[in-house]
Amino acid sequence: MDNKGKLELIAEKKLSVNEELYQLINFLNKNLKDKNLIFGLSKINEKTMVIKIYET
Question: Which stretch of DSSP H or E encloses residue 15?
């Protein structure tokens, strides 16, 4: 089976909601894409967000 293009979850961290996290994730994705890393951010509920780091 070919794993090309598949994302592998490296780490995840739950944090308190902070709207500036979107800017941080955007910054990391723009500057580290050549290192085969992708950062994701999702809101779990009103108080919690989770940051995930993937390797491509």
Answer: strand 8-16
What phi and psi values does residue 20 have, to the nearest 5 degrees? -75, -15
Range of the domain at 24: 8-55
Within-domain flag for 35:
yes
List pLDDT tens digits, range 1-52.
Answer: 456 679 999 999 999 999 899 999 999 999 999 999 999 999 999 999 999 9
pTM, full prediction: 0.83
Is 3 contained in some domain?
no
Backbone dihedral angles phi then psi of residue 16, each to the nearest 5 degrees = -70, 150
